Amino acid sequence: MSIKYEELSEEFPEEGFSENEFLEEGEEFSELIKYTIPGYILGLLAGVFLDFQGYQRSPVGQWLVRTLAGEGESIFEGIFSIRQRIRQAEGSMAEAYGWGKFFGIAFPWIIDLGSRLAGVDVYGVEGFYIPYFYALSDQIGANISGMLFLKRTEGSWKAGFSRYVRHPVMLASLFIIILVPLGLLGARILGFSPTTQTFTALETIAANLCWVPPLAGWLNEKYR
């Protein structure tokens, strides 16, 4: 293993990645991946339960289902970041990523409430952006937090951005932030509508690709 990283450091000396950084971040990103599935399961179970109870179109029910299905992993990842701070571990990309997601949790609640008060049809095409923010506002926060982390560690915006465009986690994050709303809009145009809490959960789960960037980071560290 040491030979592999020595060869890597010789091949890419300017990137400033150490062997310890690769190993530690690989382990941490693998932990982040584990937090996604529980959120999916909790959101889907909540949707089925609320439908069974007759709350198919309850706004509060949709808030709960979308929060669990779209942001459940952010709660767990926030706990991961808090645990890292308690352990007084040295700051890492995975920790910065987790903090960014944790602090992005409340943003979609504001958008959802504001849209309903403004009279937006949350079940129609015009409401496609609501599940997007539930699913990926934390991802946007993670992307920004990751960029700030890279700027801080590299010492300048230019160097930080240079590392950003070569970082698999940041690129995967940017990719899904751009593509997911197009998919949601297309589904609504084709006639999909979250008229039940189960459909609400499934739509949010489909949009919540927050597991992709940590997976990209884990695969990069595992096979590099």
Task: Determine the strand fraction and express it as a percent band.
Answer: under 5%
Question: What structural class do helix, strand and pairing data support?
Answer: mainly alpha
- Count of DSSP H/I helices: 11
Number of DSSP E strands: 0
Provide the number of structural domains.
1
- Could you tell me the mean pLDDT? 79
Shape designation: elongated
What value does the Rg take, in angstroms? 19 Å
Helix percentage: over 70%
Could you give a short account of the major beta sheet?
none
Q: Low-confidence parts lasting 5 or more residues at pLDDT below 50?
A: 1-27
* Helix-strand topology string: HHHHHHHHHHH
Q: Between the first and last Cα atoms, what is the distance in angstroms?
A: 11 Å
Structure description:
The chain is mainly alpha-helical and 224 residues long. The chain has one domain. It has helices at residues 2-11, 19-33, 36-52, 59-86, 93-103, 107-117, 129-154, 157-164, 168-189, 197-207, 212-223. Keywords: Membrane, Transmembrane, Transmembrane helix.
List the helices and strands and how they pair.
Layout: H1 2-11, H2 19-33, H3 36-52, H4 59-86, H5 93-103, H6 107-117, H7 129-154, H8 157-164, H9 168-189, H10 197-207, H11 212-223
What structural keywords apply?
224 residues; mainly alpha; 11 helices; disordered N terminus; membrane; transmembrane helix; transmembrane
Summarize the structure.
With 224 residues, the protein is an all-alpha fold. The protein has helices at 2-11, 19-33, 36-52, 59-86, 93-103, 107-117, 129-154, 157-164, 168-189, 197-207, 212-223.
